[in-house]
Amino acid sequence: MENCSGEFSIEAMSQIFKVSKSGYYDWSKRSFSIRKQKDAELAIVIEKIFYQFHRVYGSDRIHRELRKRQIRISRKRVERIMAENKLYSIYNSKKKVKTTDSNHDLPVSPNLLNRNFEVAQPNQVWVSDITYIPSDAGWLYLCQIKDLYSRKIVGWSIADHMRTEMLLDALSMAVKLRNPAEGLIFHSDRGVQYCSNIFREALQELGIISSMSRKGNCWDNAPAESFFATLKCELIYHIKLINLDDARQKIFQYIEFFYNRIRMHSSLGYISPVMYELKNAA
Question: How far is the C-alpha of 271 from the C-alpha of 264, rounded, in Å?
Answer without folding.
Answer: 5
